[in-house]
Amino acid sequence: MRRETIVNLVLAAGFVLVPLVAWMIDEPFVVTLATRVAILALAGIGLNIALGYGGLVSFGHAAFFGLGGYAMGVLASHAQSFSPMLTWPVEISGTKSMLVIWLVAIAVSGLAALVIGILSLRTTGVYFIMITLAFAQMLYYFTVSWPAYGGEDGLSIYVRNSFPGLNTLDPIQFFAICTALLFIALFLSGRLSRSPFGLALQSVRQNPERVEATGIRPFDLRLTAFVISGMITGLAGALFADLNRFVSPSMFSWHTSGEIMVFVILGGVGRLFGPLAGAALFILLEHWLGGFTTYWQFLLGLLLLGVVLFFRGGLIGTIAGREVAHD
Amino acid sequence: MTAILLIEQILNGLQLGVMLFLMAAGLTLIFGVMGLINLAHGSLYMVGAFACAAVAAATGSFWLGLVASLIAAAMAGVIVEMLVIRRLYDRDHLDQVLATFALILVFSEGTRWVFGSFPLYLDVPPLLAGPVSLPGGIEYPAYRFAIIVAGLLIAAGLFLLIARTRLGIRIRAGENDREMIAALGVDISLLYTLVFALGAALAGFAGAMVGAIQSVQVGMGEPVLILAFVVIVIGGIGSIRGALVGAILVGVTDTLGRVLLPILFGRFMEASQATTVGAALASMLIYILMAVVLLVRPRGLFGAA
Amino acid sequence: MTDTVLSVRNISKSFGALLASNDISLDLMAGEIHALIGPNGAGKSTLIKQIAGSLTPDSGTVEFLGRDVTTLDTVARARMGLGRSFQVSSVIPDFTVFQNVALAVQGFRRTTFRFFRPALGDVAIRKASMRHIDRAGLAGREAIRASDLAHGERRRLEIAMALALEPKAFLLDEPMAGMGPDGSKEMTAILDELRREAPILLVEHDMDAVFALADRISVLVYGQVIATGTVDEIRKSAEVRQAYLGDEANA
User: pTM, whole model, 2 decimals?
Assistant: First the structure.
C-alpha cells in the first residue's frame, strides 16, 4: 500500500478514536476540540479544491466561511425570536433545523462563489489574490456596519440547532455529525481529484496553455472548482457557528482566510488528508503551546516559516514523500 | 456641510493618501523589482511606530524618535530580507504569501512580548502642535499638514531617485528583466536588499508619523497593509506613479465617502438608517472601487499590460 | 485532392515598430506536409501563434476547414480540430504519459466535466490513449511521469497529445528541436505516417528532415514569405540561397 494511504488511514483512525476514548473517560473538552478540528478541516478541504488542485490562491475564502456562518445565524436567530424573515410577498420564517440550514449555507456560498469567481477569475496572480481578499473585506465591513444581526458584536444563538433523531447538545453526537460530513467531503474530494474534471483541473494548475490546446477552457474549469470549493467552506462555516453558537464578522476577516490557508499548507497542499492533518496540528499547537505562553502565535509563525521554506510538502508530504502519480 | 468642512475633509483624505503612498511605494517597488508579495510590510510600519514612540519617550524628542524609526525599520528590513525574504524570490506567490503571513505573526507576537498589549503614547511635537492658517480662512492642524508636505516631498524624491540616479536605473532595469541585469554585472543581492530596506524605511516612517495621531499598538499595520495593497492594485503593480495616484484616490474616496454617504442617504432615508447604510457602504467603498478598476483594467491604472 | 484545409491570407502583425508578419499568405492542402523554414527571427513563431489563435493578426484572415477563424481563440480552434505541438515542450510535468494523453482524449470527447468516475478507469479513454501513445512511439513508457521523460520522448508526447484531438490539421512547431540523429530519424518516420491522418504545417530547422518529409516548402525571411514551392524548386531557388546562406555566411 502506498505510504500516503497508510498515513491517511492512521490519521483517520486516530481522529475518530481519540475523541471516542475521551468521551468514554468523560473528557468532553477533548471531544469539543476534536469537533473544532473536524470543522476547520472541512473548511480546508473546500479551500484545497481551489488552491491545492486548481492552484487558485484565494485569500478571501473567509467570505464563504462567513456566509455559511451568517446563513445559520440569520435563520436561527429569526427562529429563536419567533420573528419571520420576510412577510412579503411570501412569509418566510427562520429555522433551527440543521439540514435546512446546511442547504441554505451551501446554496448561498455557492452563489457567492459563482459571482466572485466570475469577476475574479478574469485576473491572475497577485491581482487575483487581492480581488478575492477585497470581496471578503467587503462582506466583513458590511456585517460590521449592519446592526440588524449584531454588527461588530456578533450574534448569539442560544440553543444548538436540531438534527432529526439526535441530541445535538451532546458533544459526542455533534462530533459524530461533523465527522460524518468531514468524511463525506473527503470521499467526494478524493473522487473529484481522480475524475476527468480533477485531471483537467490539476493540469490547468501546471500548464494552462497545454490545456487550452486540448480544447478545454481554463476559465470554465477554474470557476467550477471555485464554486465547489466555496460551497464546502460555506458548510464548514455553518457548522462552526453552530459549534460556538455564535457568529460574528470576524468569520470574514482576512486572518480567518489566512488561517484556513495555514491549515492546508501545514498539512500539505493538494494532499487529500492535508487539511485534516493541518487543522489537527494547528489546534494541537494552539492548546499545547498556548498552555506555555500567550505568545504561542510567535512560535506558530516560526513553524509556518519553517514549513514553507524547508518542509514544502507539509506534514503529509514530509512523512509520505513525493506524490505517486495516479494510475 | 460647508465648503470649509469639505475642504478640511479633502485635506484629511490627502493626508491619508500620502501616508498610504509611503506604504504602497515600498510594496510596489518590492513587487516590481523582486516579484515578491510582502505581507509583512504592515509589520515594518509597526516597527517604525514603536521605535519612534520608545525613543521619543526615552529622550523626550519626537524628532529623534523619527530618525530612530527610519533606522529601526530599515534594519528590520535588512535582517528579514537576508534571513527569510531572499529565499522566497524564486518561489511562487502562495509560498510568499504564507511566509510573509508567518512573519506577521512573528512580528506581532514578538512586539507584544516586548512591549505588552497596551498602546504606547506618542505625542505630536510641540513645534507642530497648533493649527496652520490656510487661504480661505481654513484652520488645519499643522501636524497633519506637515504629513501631507512630507509625503509629497518624499514622492518627489522617489521620482528623482528612480528617474535620475544609477540606483534608479538599476531598479527600472531590474523591473524589466532580472536575469539580464545580473548578467550585466549588477550585484543583484545588494540591489534587492537595498530596495527592500528602502521600502521598509518608508513604511516605518509612515508608521511613526501616523503614530502621533492614532495609537501605537500591535496590529496597527494590518488595516494599512490591506489598504496599501488595494492602492497598488488600483494603481498598477510596479508603478510608483500608479501608487501615488492610487493612494490619493483611495485616501480621498475613503475619507469623503465616510463623511458624505450618510448625508447623501439622509436625503431620502430617515437619519439612523441613513447613518447605518452610509457607514456600511463607506467601508466597502474602496473595495468596490478596486473591483471596478480591475474589471475595466485588469492590470490597474498604470500597470504593465 | 485539392482541398485547402488551412488558409492564411495577407496576415500582418506589428509589435510597436517591429513588423513581425508582413502580408503573409500560404495554404495547407489535404494530404501534404508543408514545411515552413527560415532563419532565426524570421517570425515563424509569431505566424504559428496567429494560426493557432493565441495571437490576433492586425490584418488578414485565417481560414480553417472553410471557416473564417480569425477571431476565434485557441480553444475554439482546437475544438474544430487544429492539433498543435509547441516549440518548447509543453506537457503536464507531474502527470504520467498516460494521464497527459488521457487529458487530451477526454478534452476531445468533451467528457471533461465528469466528477465521480475515475478518469483513467474509462475503458474507451484507456484504449484511445494507448493507441495514440503507440503511434507516437511511446509504448511501454505510459507510466512514466512527464518530467522524468527524456527530451526526445517529451517531444513524442507532444505528438501523442496532438493526435488525441483526432485533428483535421497539425501545427507542429520544431518537433525535432534538441534531438540527436537517431531521435530525428524516428520522429521523421512518425511524421511521415502522420500525414495520412491530416495535413501538417511543419516549422523546422532540421533541413534533412524537411527535405525528406516536405511536399512543399515556404521560406519566411524578415516576416515575409519569399518563396513557396516543392523541395526541388526551393533547393534551386537563388533567392532562398541568398537569404539563408547569405545570412549564415554573415552570422
Answer: 0.89
